[in-house]
Design a protein that fits this description.
The chain is mainly α. The chain has 13 helices and no strands. Keywords: Cell membrane, Membrane, Transmembrane, Transmembrane helix.
Length: about 450
């Protein structure tokens, strides 16, 4: 069917579909690039102030904090983008309100439970951790529940297409406050140790989460008037827990190279490698920006049973993501000597590491939004299985390649696994939903 043969109402929806996600993606990308700039500045500052040894400790502890924080949302953050827009599209505000309330309670409860277990383990078995790691871990235990709650708030805001409110507090405000707190702490005489950096992150996370929660509550009261709440606990958890497994595997996939390096090389080498990954995040943000602007629209289009608009959305997301990833990746590589040099002298060996990581992200982007389709439209268990298998493969490749190639081996391992995962997700998403995702596909949907 051609676009000219569509009814006027469908053409209007198509124009909204085309322009809305693009504007939202540009907003998200602008915020994430800005926040990445502040994050990059804060990481440069931390590395300069602490030295590579302490910075490597901070990096290792922060990796675990972020990974657990994403996981203890139980998949309810991503689930908000799937369930809430669909309920609203069908006029069931009672169920939408119930999901938001239940998700906040379950996320907070799970985060506090995990933090309590971590605190008990640290108190009862301190010898499990090297002395230099104990104080940073103690502070990180306090940071993790705030991280988890903010992750859920981000999902709720994204479900309403409030991309600025979703992205700015965790990625722009939190990073800015962390950098300001670190400078203030050192000027006031605090030692530039890893636990001080984590304490600054704690203060920044508390302020950013409080502000985001307050603003989100005000806006939700305007779109969802007070009323009864209805709950579907079993259905929500049955769908969200596999998404939680995806989040855990994704978080592990993001940080597996740093984790394996931490077990095989010195903290200083971990810090130098982590610096390269912080620059590579500029490339990863492209997919995040487009996905953040599009996920909830998949759910709404599916609820309206509009296959044409859904296929158009998939096609545009895939091609936009790939083109922008290539452009940003090329710019990052061109500027890599300068960006790495900001961390200090002697980082020339990190340029090949950055090249490999960027090449992996670019190649993976060519396979399109397979993960997003499986997460939002059904197939989350398949997605979780593929991601978990890819995580195991990435860890195995890192273990095999690091002894021979050092930190470059970690980059090679994670890049190969990233491309393989993207290819598998695209193939499975195409078979399950009849929507081809690779950028070279014709874009037709069954």
């Amino acid at each position: 069917m051609s676009a000219t043969a569509l009814p006027v109402s469908a053409l209007r929806r198509l124009r909204t579909l085309r322009s809305g996600p693009q504007r939202a993606a540009l907003t998200v990308f602008a915020i994430r690039v800005s926040s990445a700039g502040f994050a990059y500045g804060s990481q440069v500052l931390a590395a300069r102030l602490m030295g590579w040894e302490a910075y490597g400790i901070f990096a290792s502890v922060w990796v675990w904090t972020a990974m657990l924080g994403h996981t203890v949302t139980l998949g309810l953050s991503q689930g908000a983008c799937r369930f809430v827009p669909g309920d609203q599209a069908q006029g069931d505000l009672d169920l939408a309100r119930g999901y938001i309330r239940a998700g906040a309670l379950m996320t907070g409860g799970a985060a506090l439970a995990v933090a309590g277990l971590g605190a008990a383990l640290l108190a009862l078995e301190p010898d499990l951790f090297a002395p230099a790691y104990r104080a940073p871990i103690a502070v990180a235990i306090c940071v993790m529940p705030l991280f988890a709650l903010q992750d859920f708030l981000e999902g709720v805001a994204r479900s309403q297409n409030w991309v600025g409110l979703a992205i700015a507090p965790p990625y722009l405000l939190r990073q800015t406050l962390m950098m300001g707190c670190m400078v203030a702490a050192v000027l006031l005489g605090a030692p530039p140790h890893a636990e001080v950096a984590m304490a600054c992150m704690l203060a920044a996370a508390a302020a950013a989460t409080t502000l985001q929660a307050a603003l989100l509550a005000v806006r939700l009261r305007r779109t969802m008037p007070r009323g009864p709440n209805r709950y579907r606990w079993r259905f929500w958890l049955g769908t969200s827990l596999p998404i939680a497994a995806i989040d855990l595997a994704n978080a592990g996939f993001t940080f597996v190279d740093v984790i394996v390096l931490g077990a095989l090389v010195s903290p200083a080498e971990v810090g130098i490698y982590f610096a390269a990954t912080r620059i590579q995040q500029f490339v990863v943000f492209v997919h995040f920006a487009v996905s953040a602007a599009t996920l909830q629209r998949y759910s709404a289009a599916q609820a309206q049973a509009n296959r044409f608009l859904l296929a158009e959305l998939v096609r545009r997301q895939g091609r936009t993501t790939a083109a922008a990833t290539v452009a940003v990746g090329g710019a990052i590589l061109a500027a890599s000597p300068l960006l790495l040099g900001m961390f200090g002298p002697g980082l020339g060996a990190s340029v090949p590491i950055l090249c490999v990581l960027v090449a992996g992200s670019v190649a993976a982007s060519l396979f399109g939004p397979g993960e997003d389709l499986l997460t939002m439209l059904g197939g989350e268990r398949l997605c979780a299985g593929i991601t978990a298998a890819s995580l195991v493969a990435a860890a195995g490749l890192c273990v095999a390649l690091i002894p021979a190639f050092g930190p470059l081996g970690a980059a090679l391992g994670v890049a190969l696994a990233t491309v393989g995962r993207a290819a598998l997700l695209a193939r499975v998403a195409g078979r399950v939903h009849g929507l081809p995702t690779p950028v070279w596909s014709a874009g037709a949907a069954r």
